[in-house]
Write a structure and sequence with these properties.
216 residues; alpha/beta; TIM Barrel; six-stranded parallel sheet; three-stranded parallel sheet; globular; binds fe (ii) ion
Length: 216
């Protein structure tokens, strides 16, 4: 069984990550201890509240991947793409095929569905980041039905969010494809991810199958 963390902000000085370079190896040690052997670094892109240094992403990723390799951890570069009505879709896709997407938590911004459709039409599969946070989404609502059934969106819940009422609602619905840490520098999160996956084995199985089908 392999465990992947598809949502992290662990590249120092790239976005709003709190992780310092000197604590990076300690963090990788925590991932290793928790049995997590793959990490996707997913810095924010187009998030109006985060000032991301795009020019640093590639070089910092190279640095981080080399450090992580010493712990036997395989790294991937992706992003967390903030969906609104932007013209340019300059995301970094996970694995070259998937786009982890966030948006405003209180309402779906103008152009939201349209932008998701444009991403999907250009051949990528959308993963809805920390779905439990969105007040305008629930497993039964019409917007989610469209996202899921028409656009084939996958569903991600945060490890901490899994313990909230909405997190439990999503997880019990059987609709969740990934649990991830959304780790900004908290060394307790790798173990938290491992533990919550133990409570929802169907998600752990789906994540394992995803890695086998797409990455191995
Ligand atoms: Fe995030």
């Amino acid at each position: 069984m392999t465990i992947i963390d598809i949502h992290t902000h662990l590249l120092p000085k790239v976005d709003d990550s709190m992780l310092k370079r000197r604590r990076f190896s300690a963090m990788m040690g925590k991932y290793r201890e928790a049995g997590i052997d793959r990490i996707v670094f997913s810095p924010h892109i187009d998030d109006p509240y985060v000032d991301t240094r795009r020019d640093r992403i590639e070089s910092t990723f190279e640095w981080a991947a080399a450090k992580a390799a010493k712990f036997g951890i395989t790294c991937h570069l992706g992003c967390e793409f903030y969906v609104r009505d932007q013209e340019r879709l300059d995301f970094i896709p996970h694995f070259g095929t998937h786009v982890l997407c966030e948006t405003d938590t209180s309402f779906a911004p103008q152009g939201y569905l349209d932008t998701v459709r444009r991403i999907t039409d250009s051949g990528y599969r959308v993963i809805l980041a920390h779905v439990e946070r969105y007040r305008f989404l629930s497993p039964e609502c019409e917007l989610f039905r469209q996202l899921h059934e028409e656009y084939g969106c996958l569903v991600q819940v945060n490890a901490r969010g899994a313990r909230t009422d909405m997190g439990r609602t999503w997880l019990r619905s059987g609709l969740v494809d990934f649990i991830a840490t959304d780790n900004h520098g908290d060394e307790s999160l790798p173990l938290a991810l491992y533990e919550i996956l133990g409570q929802y084995p169907y998600v752990a199985r789906r994540m394992n199958a995803f890695v086998q089908d797409n990455l191995d």
